[in-house]
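Summary for the steering committee. One of the milestones for this cycle was to obtain a three-dimensional model of the protein with MU-OXO-diiron bound, which we needed before selecting residues for the alanine scan. The sequence and ligand used are listed below.
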Amino acid sequence: MKPVKITEGVYSLRANHFNRHLFDSLIPLPDGTSYNAYLVKGSEKTALLDSSDPEKKEVLLGYLRGVEKLDYIIAHHAEQDHSGAIPFVLEKYPSAKVVTNPKCKELLMSHLHIPAGKFIEVKDGETLSLGGHTLEFIYLPWVHWPETMGTYLREDKILFSCDLFGSHLASGELFSEERTVYAPMKRYYAEIMMPFRSNIKGHLEKLSKYEINFIAPSHGPVHKNVKFVLEIYRDWAAGEPKNKALVAYVSMHGSTYILVNRLVSALEEAGVSVEKLNLEQFDEGRVAMALVDAATVIIGTPTVLAGPHPKAVYGAYLANALRPKVKFISVIGSYGWGGKMAEQITGMLTNLKVEVIEPVIIKGYPKEADFKALDQMADNILQKHRQING
Ligand code: FEO
């Protein structure tokens, strides 16, 4: 594989991983992923920005075959999908120095056993000249680890953004297209970045002073349409939730399913957009994506093992961990002889600043009065959404 030119002296060394199906043994990857390293050749020095997952180290080393001298390895992030191949690169270029911030240095030393003497520490805003190419380091903590940072290449106006603005999307195309990258970017944001919304809001503010022609993230294609990328991130991280309800449910013998269908119809008739997700085949990415802009989440669950269905519990746990900007929550479902599903589900959402809408929990098969209660819930949700969206 040959490095792919982005601008004069700047290259993409992307290692696509088309057939990886799970990240962190948790996140489904319907479009695979990529580990993006970049090479910047100045008139005096050469820098490699990040490396690759160790599983793809041969791809990275193949890209570097024609590179005789490497002076610096810029480490934006200590997670192994970007740093894991650094020890192999150091083996090939023993005089290269790893340039990073003190926190990342500490993590690389503990995770990869890179000796302290191999590092050059840089401060936020510090620059490093390669000769005609000036790297400016920008601290971007908590996207999504504490040590994350980016690099701005001043002359070419390229932001190497680490995981920020990335997408789990294996692709042979250098540049992203809005049509194809939107969903993978949203999925990525939802699964990885959403819990750190307030940090991201701050970073978007910090980055607004830079003129950026390209965003080169650590996963997925390079973005030429910088305005598009910044606008969708602003909307996801800082915008108000939409007039939208997520109804995530699981049903065992059909009663909860009937309640779900009635509520979904009532919401749609009221003018609330609805995403209905069956949790039986749990896709963490779909749940996370639906949480990005929903104002309300309704969990539908039957009673089993004296409580909510375990898949509904997992849904609530995930929603709590991902810290979406949801404002209202409720529970619907049925029981046979007892159970406190609603209290157990709402009690799990301690990270969320939500108002609980009166749950509809019924005994057995739904009756007319239960449908009326669901219609009332839909109307209630609409009124609450109007208060947010005007
Ligand atoms: Fe893509 Fe957080 O590593």
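Key point for the committee: The first helix runs from residue 57 to 63.
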